[in-house]
Specification:
By secondary structure, the chain is α+β, with helices and mostly antiparallel strands. Helix content is 30%, strand content 28%. Strand 2 and strand 3 (42-48) form a beta hairpin. The two termini are 20 Å apart. 20% of the residues are buried. Residues 146-168 are annotated as: Disordered.
């Protein structure tokens, strides 16, 4: 989340990337979403080139696109610059984050219950943006018939209560 030291190329290379999802690019094949293991705000997408012309022009059949806080960052150097600026917590994100527990909880029932409580349908999108910004941590845990996503508030996330006050 809010890194306290300057992020450098060496900082990024010292960590790794973990599989965070897959994309479908149709006839060109699939792509993989990667999240950095120690800098959750940093993601990469490995995707196929979108045309034979792009493959010929670039001389590669797959591309890596970097993103920070869920937005395109361009090059790795641009991503590093963006990572050295603290993530901004929007008002609607602060509202949702106030309800996210510090202990691990199943994402789907939490998201459903919170959406009903707040009367909002965009809770899932806001949870995703909070994860991209490193304010929420996520993991897949074994379950039948398939793994289940779990979330919790990141330990260094800003602490507020649902009524807008500070947590004790």
């Amino acid at each position: 989340m809010a890194e306290t030291s300057t992020i450098t190329r060496e900082t990024i290379m010292a960590g790794g990337l973990r599989d965070a999802g897959h994309l479908n690019y149709g006839k060109r094949g699939g792509g993989t979403i990667w999240q950095h293991t120690t800098i959750p705000r940093l993601q990469a997408i490995d995707r196929p080139t979108l045309s034979d012309e792009e493959t010929k022009r670039l001389g590669v059949s797959r591309l890596r696109e970097w993103s920070v806080d869920g937005g395109r960052a361009g090059s790795l150097e641009d991503a590093i610059a963006a990572l050295n600026v603290p993530a901004v917590l929007a008002e609607e994100e602060a509202e949702i984050l106030a309800f996210v527990p510090e202990e691990w909880t199943k994402l789907v029932p939490f998201r459903h219950d919170l959406g009903e409580k707040l009367g909002r349908e965009d809770v899932a999108t806001t949870i995703l943006t909070l994860r991209h910004k490193g304010f929420i941590q996520n993991e897949l845990r074994p379950a039948a018939p398939r793994a289940e996503p779990w979330i919790r508030r990141a330990p260094d996330a800003p602490s507020t209560t649902p009524d807008g006050g500070a947590r004790a």
